[in-house]
Amino acid sequence: MTSQKKKGRVFSGARPTGRQHLGNYLGAIKNYVALQDEYEECIYCIVDIHALTTVDTTKELKNNTYEMALDWLAAGLRPDDSIIFVQSHVPEVAELHTFLSMVTPLGKLTDLPTFKEKIRYQPQNINYGLVGYPVLMAADIALYKAIVVPVGVDQAPHIEFTREVVRSFNYHYNTNVLIEPQMKATKVPKVLGIDGENKMSKSLGNHIELASSPQETQQRVMQMVTDPQRARRADPGNPDVCNVFTMHRIFSSEEEVETINVECRKAGIGCVDCKKMFAKNLNEHLAPFRARRAKLAEKPDDVWGVLDDGGKRARAIAGQTIAEVKEAIGLP
Ligand code: ADP
Questions:
Q1: Helix, strand or coil for residue 81?
Q2: How far is the CA of 50 from the centre of ligand 1 (A)?
Q3: Does residue 272 have a pLDDT over 60?
Q4: Inter-residue contact 271 to 236 (CB < 8 Å)
Q5: Is 201 part of any domain?
C-alpha cells in the first residue's frame, strides 16, 4: 500500500474555531482524510496564531483547539499516518513568515478579496497580522514544502498568493528551495449555510455542527431556507435553487433524490417533510463519527498527546527547511 502512495507532502490548516461544521467537513476535512491514502505524508495544522488576528479573547482558544482535534480524529485523521499539530508549537513558522514578508509587496496583500472581506467584518481592528495573514499561511505551507493543499474554494486566493510568494522568494534568492503548491478542492468546495445564501461559517452563525446531537441537528435543518419563491405548501418548488436539495444530493439515496426532484416541482412533497428526510439521513451519516468522537473524548490526554507528538515531528521538518532557507538567503 505504502509503495503505491504518491511522493510529496500534503498540508492544510484551519483556525481553532471549535467544533467543525458541515462546510469544514465537505469542503476540507473529507479531502484531509482521503489524501492520507494517496500521499506519502500528510500534515494537518490547527492554526492558533492565525486565530489571533480575528478573536477578541483567547479564553476559548485551548478548548477550541481540543474540540477541533477531536473532530478531525473522529472524522478519520490517523496520527500514525499524518502529522496533526498546533501551529504555535513550531516557532519556525514565524521565522519563515518574516523572510517571506521581505519579498511580498504590501499592495498585493491589501488587494486580496479575503482581506477586504475581513476588514468589513472588523473595521475597528485592522491589525498588522490581518494584513499579513496570507504571508503566514504561505509560510505554513512552504515550511513543509507541501505540494498539495486541500481547502475550500474560499481559500483559492490565498493559495494563488502562496504560489506567487514562493516564486518570488525563489527568484529573489536564486534558489529552488521552496515549492509551489497546488490547491485541491472537494466535490463540494463551497457549502452554503442554513440561510441558503452565504458560505456556511461559524462567524455568520449559519452552520450545522458535526458533533451536535440528533435533536439539535434536526432543529438546525428545520431552519434551513429553501426555494424562496415557494411561499406556500401548495406552490410548486424548484430544487435547482434549494440548498436542502443540494444537501440531499450528498447525503440521501439516489431514489430519494429522484423522488424529491420530481415531487417538489409539482408540490407533491412539502419543505417540512423534505427537511425531515434530510435531517434523518444526515444524522444517520454522522452517527459513526459521533460515536468515535464520544470514545475519543473519554481520554483527553491522548488527544493532547497526538498534538504534542505531531508538533515534534513537524518541528523536525521545519528546522530542516529553515536551515535551507537561511542558506539560500545568504544569512551569515
Ligand atoms: P470558518 O469559515 O468556519 O471560519 P475556516 O475558515 O477555519 O472556517 O475554514 C477551515 C477549512 O474549511 C478551510 O479549508 C475552508 O476553506 C473550509 N471551509 C470553511 N467553510 C467552508 C464552506 N462553507 N464550504 C466549503 N469549505 C469551507
A1: coil
A2: 14
A3: yes
A4: no
A5: no
Residues 293-323 pLDDT 10s: 999 999 999 999 999 999 999 999 999 999 9
* pLDDT tens column, 59-97: 999 999 999 999 999 999 999 999 999 999 999 999 999
The closest residue, in CA terms, to atom 2 on ligand 1 is: 201
- 176 C-alpha to ligand 1 centroid (Å): 31
Q: Both 39 and 131 in a single domain?
A: yes
Which uninterrupted H or E stretch holds 310?
A: helix 300-329
Domain of residue 20 covers 6-190+299-329
Q: What is the CATH number of the domain that holds 64?
A: 3.40.50.620
Q: Within this chain, do residues 290 and 309 fall inside the same structural domain, yes or no? A: no
CA–CA separation, 302 vs 21, rounded Å?
Answer: 23
Mutate to test the pocket of ligand 1, among 12, 24, 130, 140 (most ligand atoms within 8 A of CB): 24
**What mean pLDDT is predicted for residues 13-24?**
96
- CA dihedral sign of residues 103, 84, 8, 191: negative
Query: Scanning the structure block, which residue is given the C-alpha cell 485592522?
Result: 126
Residues 119 and 223 placed together within one structural domain of the fold: no
Cβ burial, residue 253 (10 Å; 0-12/13-18/19+): exposed
Q: Indicate if 168 and 242 belong to the same structural domain.
A: no
201 lines ligand 1 (CB under 6 A): yes
